[in-house]
User: Fold these one by one.
Assistant:
Number 1:
Amino acid sequence: MKYSVLILALLILPAFICFADTSDDTLNFYLSKSDLVVVGKIVSEVGAVIDELGVPNYICDFEIQDVIKGDEGLKDRTIKINIMRFEIDKEDKHPFIKKDSKCLLFLKKANEGNTPAWETADFWFGIQHPFPTMIKSLKRLAKEK
């Protein structure tokens, strides 16, 4: 009985290892697209501006509670950000784009002279739920770079 459990574990374990590697590739990709990856909270009302292509730009203040990648000096500071999203319907709006929402942001520096100076690095993945396991993985991957 002991050996059958051990053999079963040895057969299943490689599948989980491969799955983690695939996930690491995805997280590495979004880390590479980002100048700043942070966890924190939206602390102001969110204003929406629609650009010439019809893309919503949600402008708000974001209080950084943890820096995963980027300038550690920004921890415990508030920055102005632009959350850009592809949206057609009301259902497309991300539920975390509102005051007092805690979230994980993948940000890049905006073009010089733009205000705010930080914008989401990806229209789809730029704002995420701050899953503790994802944050741990991102920190591990950021340190490996």
Number 2:
Amino acid sequence: MFTRSVKAVSLKRGNAAAVVPTRENVLSGVYPLSRIFYYYLGRAPQGDLLKFVQWILSPSGQRSVAKAGFFPAK
């Protein structure tokens, strides 16, 4: 996994206190460095792609997302 070499760091702007990248700070926008990951599909998913989308949004898929170091969607 490429996230093993990533280190979360606190960030600050000017004289403000440093902000820790907690789930709450990222989701509220207080932590200034984050991005949302989107899947764009050209049409309604079918077959294996549908299975993947269903899995990634399932409890098992969301656990895998969190284990990889990302904040789950649900």
Number 3:
Amino acid sequence: MKRIYEDLLREHLREERQMAFVAGPRQVGKTTLLQSLLDEKDVTFNWDRPAEREWILKGSDALLEHVGLMDDLRAADAPKPRMAFDEIHKFRHWKRFLKGLFDAVDGRASILVTGSARLNIYKRDGDSLMGRYFLYRMHPLSVGELTQRPRDSEALTAIPSPIDEATFDALMRFGGFPEPFLRASDRFHRRWSELRQEQLFREDLRDLTRVQEIDQLISLSRLLIAQSGQLANFSTLAKQISVSVDTIRRWLDVLESFYFSYRIRPWFKNVSKSLRKQPKIYPTDWSVVTDPGARCECFVAGHLLKAVNYWSDCGLGKFALHYLRDTDQREVDFLIARDGVPWVLVEVKKSAKEPLSPALRYFAQQLNVHHAYQAVLDMDYVEADCFTSTREGIPLRVPLRTLLAQLP
């Protein structure tokens, strides 16, 4: 299955001298993506393979000599070889190593780096990679990725294409991680989910962090799944897990660093009596959420986060995902900000019988956003461009399938 990130990275390798960092959750398809970009003249070093790890530990000069780049006399117009490093974030001094390698290569080869944790996890390692890389955040499969034709790299949205009911249901039910989605088996999905959690908590988190209380961290992860999309109260979570509030904050950072979950913070600029601090927390894998309404909201949150990350990583602007809520209990599920300005509001509803949200109407007019949607799960797909059908400050009821089909 070709991912939308393949064309994006091929463009990067053609046009940019910086390293390409590809970060995303475990088993989202990073290694498969890497293989699609490499051929026989390229080389890969996986930190998890002892023989390849040894070359990394020998340093950049030894590694370049090993791959024949120390005295490279290649013609100026010859294709540049590619060097790929998989899971190198597990090496404590990976930043220092990559900085030295990038400077030594001096444009003679393209460098790709992938990791199942955020590639800035070791902030205490003082070497800066500023200006030496571009980050690409890889997300699970989405409606748009499963239905769209090749994307225009300069366009934010695409003309929608329909998704068949079975594919949509499988995506909602089994999640967007490629293997369980393609297998579409309840048995396999249960086993896969258990194995992924075991690897994440018992291997990655244990080996790469200072967290000792893994069982309590697992308990926190289960609470976050059960409370998906609700306002997070750190004091309540701390009491439930029997740790301090500071520990909860630190553990939430850890879970985000490994792409287990993410926080969406309230938008409060130009909103009177807005909430300012309490985030909502969603798991990256929406299939683990059992409540149908909460799963639908998490499903949409994952699609919107993927879109804002993709647009930002493509250099199309600075995008961020928020929610809206004020002290009068008015709330809209999602707000997309574009270059620091409210751009899109999305309220998620399960049934077309539900009236248009008064809060959506209120905030759409107050913020004068370009697009405001009440996205409805049970509405049939329609051949229409949602982004050319709205007027500023006026909400529009749209099929969820159509709206999501226009996003990356």
